[in-house]
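Hello, quick one for you while I still have it in my head. Could you read through the record and tell me how the tokens relate to the sequence? No rush at all, and the record is pasted right below.
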Amino acid sequence: MFVAGEASGDLHAGKVAEALRALVPGVAMSGVGGGHMRAAGVEILEDVEQLAVMGFVEVLAHVPKHWALLRRLRARMATGRVGLVVLLDYPGFNLKVADAAHALGIPVLYYITPQVWAWGAKRLPVLARLVRRAACILPFEEPLLRQHGIDATFVGHPLLDRAQDMPTPEAARAQLGLDPVRPVLAVFPGSRRAEIARHLSPFLAAAQAVVTQRPEVQVVVSVAPTVHIDASASPYPLVRGASFVVQRAATAGLLKSGTNTLEAAVAGLPHVIGYATNPITYAIARRVVRIPHIGLVNVVAEREVSREFVQEAFVPGVVASALMPLLDARSEARAHALAGLADVRGRLGTPGASARVAQMIAEMLAS
């Protein structure tokens, strides 16, 4: 039984399910997910689009729904039909699923483990107690988890699998109908409704400030498949569900903090990071987060590869000034960013994460 709490988890679980079916023909799979898992032959118990939420304050309204789902999953596990639970990210909920599975004697594999290196270190002994094996996607996670008694394996980042089919910049621009000569600024406001509500207007204002200074710049807005943005809300073209294509077509990017910054590293896209959340959530986060950077690309690099503008620091004109040198093919800032992104790519491992996790699952099922 797979449990993914949002769209990215559904994508990664779907890839693992495909690989697992080749290793263990006829394996029965169910879980919480979406279209990618469904296409891989997983029986969907709850659609992931009903669950995705982020933030200390924002999650409160979703608590009753999550408790109801937890009761359903616990009842499912109690039937004896579940031989292994595979959890993907979403620790606030998934650690409760792990606890239920552990109580019933069902082994748990955690793929895309909680970010205990950023905050929530108290979860380490909980993971050690509840999780049989862990599949880590960031290189520094394996030694950290092993130090706390968790059987962890660094499997590489699943983005590298997707990146194998990336188009060339020329092909990407042709696919999007962009001028092959003029520079392109890509805007990524987020993959959740709350993120779009907070990011879209200031991100577009920063893009407009860039165009005011350099009218030849083309702007495209990447729309995650999990959200809807009305065409009337943006003066620039919207591109849905093609993040790697947009990143390969772009000269520079303005990205919401998150996994898409690692996508940008894989795609070789210099970028600036912006993020805003509920003020109360941000105040709590400042007290509990133990790392100096919010962008995953900077976390992996262990230094600032991409500039970050968080909460009130996100001033469209200031952000535009940070973007300008990244749009200049000959600038020192762009060269420095490209070198940093190449370093991050090298730290993410090698392609094949989904196959490695499927092999771990096959071994656990066999034992």
User: Anything to note?
Assistant: The longest strand covers residues 218-223. The radius of gyration is 21 Å.
